[in-house]
């Protein structure tokens, strides 16, 4: 494991470029095995999750190269094989191989995925979708066994009981080569789903309605890549740096941004009193001197993203009064609270609400990044705090943030990664 060492209390300024979306990338890489040709992705983020997905691909004789932000994947010699459990258990999104393998081979065996511990994230809606498409699903010994009869998968009408990004994506991956037409109702509408559908459609898939709550998929026999697919900018990375910029910036410009994807987040920043300058593909955050408290409630897209409720917390600590955070998606996403309190933050859980009070002084401390977004909150808090902050389990931050150390250095931050021999 690694640790992040931050010498905080220094105002930051400059500009940085947002990388490709992690939540798109971790779906697009499994989707690549559906192709009958090599595929290429551009603006791929340099994160640990990409490395682990490459390990999973290699176990199936799918070779890949990753150079200069371009990832090339060749699935033309793919072989069915047991997927490496250590890589599967390292990231939640490995479950997309269920849909992709089912679409490619009409069967799949996948170990229950790991990833961040942020509360229950059941895969019952994924399984419901697979069964509707004609698959048999058996859960046994920490694994999921999925298979179809000789006729393979067939189109179906699937109504998701709850809006689920993961289930929507997995059903698309399984249905894109199924016989007939599949309709997903109450589908998730995230930009990353549109990105996936764009990639598949450019290879010959017939997916309509991505970005709405009804998606229709007409199965095709073959998918063939014709051009490099450029991954959309990461809206969660964007929100994290927007929070950082408003909390401790002296003027920071974020480039490669899709402002429309950020509206629920930037609306809260403007409500707090941040005078954002929003351009066509960039956002400038000036120095902020006075912030008002706000109420944040996470919702499915286009609402406020659950992945941003922790990264905005250090900014809420700067507000003049009590802010309230309600996470309706993952109510147990509270690992950052105890860690921030070690640094002197006024933050607590009260009646199932996260109450964030004004904290005029944060002090560096030894803290632990229990998961990606908790780690991001601690990283921003460490940059604000006086003294030195050491964040153990910093691998969790590196899992989700593209070249984070280089980007922080470009803003003038004093931060480094080192080996972490002692766990907090």
From TrEMBL:
<keyword id="KW-0131">Cell cycle</keyword>
<keyword id="KW-0573">Peptidoglycan synthesis</keyword>
<dbReference type="InterPro" id="IPR050068">
    <property type="entry name" value="MurA_subfamily"/>
</dbReference>
<protein>
    <recommendedName>
        <fullName>UDP-N-acetylglucosamine 1-carboxyvinyltransferase</fullName>
        <ecNumber>2.5.1.7</ecNumber>
    </recommendedName>
</protein>
<feature type="domain" description="Enolpyruvate transferase">
    <location>
        <begin position="7"/>
        <end position="408"/>
    </location>
</feature>
<comment type="function">
    <text>Cell wall formation. Adds enolpyruvyl to UDP-N-acetylglucosamine.</text>
</comment>
<keyword id="KW-0133">Cell shape</keyword>
<dbReference type="Pfam" id="PF00275">
    <property type="entry name" value="EPSP_synthase"/>
</dbReference>
<comment type="pathway">
    <text>Cell wall biogenesis; peptidoglycan biosynthesis.</text>
</comment>
<comment type="similarity">
    <text>Belongs to the EPSP synthase family. MurA subfamily.</text>
</comment>
<dbReference type="InterPro" id="IPR005750">
    <property type="entry name" value="UDP_GlcNAc_COvinyl_MurA"/>
</dbReference>
<dbReference type="InterPro" id="IPR013792">
    <property type="entry name" value="RNA3'P_cycl/enolpyr_Trfase_a/b"/>
</dbReference>
<dbReference type="InterPro" id="IPR001986">
    <property type="entry name" value="Enolpyruvate_Tfrase_dom"/>
</dbReference>
<dbReference type="GO" id="GO:0008760">
    <property type="term" value="F:UDP-N-acetylglucosamine 1-carboxyvinyltransferase activity"/>
</dbReference>
<feature type="binding site">
    <location>
        <position position="307"/>
    </location>
    <ligand>
        <name>UDP-N-acetyl-alpha-D-glucosamine</name>
    </ligand>
</feature>
<feature type="active site" description="Proton donor">
    <location>
        <position position="116"/>
    </location>
</feature>
<keyword id="KW-0961">Cell wall biogenesis/degradation</keyword>
<feature type="binding site">
    <location>
        <begin position="22"/>
        <end position="23"/>
    </location>
    <ligand>
        <name>phosphoenolpyruvate</name>
    </ligand>
</feature>
<keyword id="KW-0132">Cell division</keyword>
<feature type="binding site">
    <location>
        <begin position="121"/>
        <end position="125"/>
    </location>
    <ligand>
        <name>UDP-N-acetyl-alpha-D-glucosamine</name>
    </ligand>
</feature>
<keyword id="KW-0963">Cytoplasm</keyword>
<feature type="binding site">
    <location>
        <position position="92"/>
    </location>
    <ligand>
        <name>UDP-N-acetyl-alpha-D-glucosamine</name>
    </ligand>
</feature>
<feature type="binding site">
    <location>
        <position position="329"/>
    </location>
    <ligand>
        <name>UDP-N-acetyl-alpha-D-glucosamine</name>
    </ligand>
</feature>
<dbReference type="InterPro" id="IPR036968">
    <property type="entry name" value="Enolpyruvate_Tfrase_sf"/>
</dbReference>
<keyword id="KW-0808">Transferase</keyword>
């Amino acid at each position: 494991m690694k640790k992040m060492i931050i010498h905080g209390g220094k105002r930051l300024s400059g500009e940085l470029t947002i990388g490709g979306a992690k939540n798109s990338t971790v779906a697009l890489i499994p989707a690549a095995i559906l192709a009958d040709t090599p595929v290429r992705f551009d603006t791929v983020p340099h994160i640990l999750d990409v490395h682990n997905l490459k390990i999973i691909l290699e176990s199936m004789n799918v070779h890949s190269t990753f150079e200069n932000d371009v990832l090339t994947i060749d699935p033309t010699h793919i072989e069915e094989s047991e997927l490496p459990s250590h890589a599967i258990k390292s990231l939640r999104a490995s479950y997309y191989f269920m849909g992709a393998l089912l679409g490619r081979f009409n069967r799949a065996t996948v170990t229950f995925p790991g990833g961040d511990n942020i509360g229950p994230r059941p895969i019952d809606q994924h399984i419901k979708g697979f069964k509707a498409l004609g698959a048999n699903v058996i859960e046994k010994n920490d694994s999921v066994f999925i298979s179809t009869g000789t006729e393979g998968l067939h189109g179906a009408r699937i109504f998701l009981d709850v809006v689920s990004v993961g289930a929507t994506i997995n059903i698309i991956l399984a249905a894109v080569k199924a016989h007939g037409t599949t309709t997903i109702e109450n589908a998730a509408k995230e930009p990353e789903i549109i990105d996936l559908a764009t990639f598949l459609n450019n290879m010959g898939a017939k997916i309509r309605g991505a970005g709405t709550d009804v998606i229709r998929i007409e199965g095709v026999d073959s998918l063939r890549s014709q051009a490099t697919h450029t991954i959309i900018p990461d809206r969660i990375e964007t929100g994290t740096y927007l929070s950082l910029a408003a909390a401790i910036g002296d003027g920071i410009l974020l480039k490669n941004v899709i402002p429309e994807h950020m509206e629920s987040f930037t609306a809260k920043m403007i409500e707090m009193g941040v005078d954002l300058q929003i351009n066509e593909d960039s956002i400038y955050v000036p120095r902020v001197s006075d912030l008002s408290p706000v109420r944040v409630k996470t919702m499915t897209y286009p609402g406020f993203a659950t992945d941003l409720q922790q990264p905005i917390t250090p900014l809420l600590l700067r507000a003049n009064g009590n802010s309230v955070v309600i996470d309706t998606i993952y109510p147990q996403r509270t690992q950052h609270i105890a860690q921030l309190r070690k640094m002197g933050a006024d933050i607590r859980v009260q009646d199932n609400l996260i109450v964030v009070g004004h904290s005029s002084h944060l002090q560096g401390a030894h803290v632990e990044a229990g998961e990606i977004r908790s780690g991001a909150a601690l990283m921003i808090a460490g940059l604000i705090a006086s003294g030195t902050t050491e964040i153990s389990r910093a691998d969790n931050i590196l899992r989700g943030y593209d070249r984070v150390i280089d980007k922080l250095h470009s803003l003038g931050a004093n931060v480094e990664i080192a080996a972490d021999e002692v766990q907090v």
